[in-house]
Design a protein that fits this description.
Elements (H helix, E strand, L loop, with lengths): L29 H6 L5 H16 L4
Protein name: DUF1289 domain-containing protein
Pfam family, one: DUF1289
InterPro entries: DUF1289
Length: 60
Amino acid sequence: MDAQESVASPCRRQCCLDPRDVCLGCGRLLTEILEWGAADPARRRAICQAAQARLRQPWA
């Protein structure tokens, strides 16, 4: 993947934040959702990876 290639938003239009400000639909933190528009492709990929890891975690 080219370093400058665009990264699609992981938003699933199932937005609902848990008590930790994690979206139950996509797994992003509220701060990551707000950052998304200005983030470069590398940062977007990092956000997506972290979000996927959060979605795989068992409920606390």
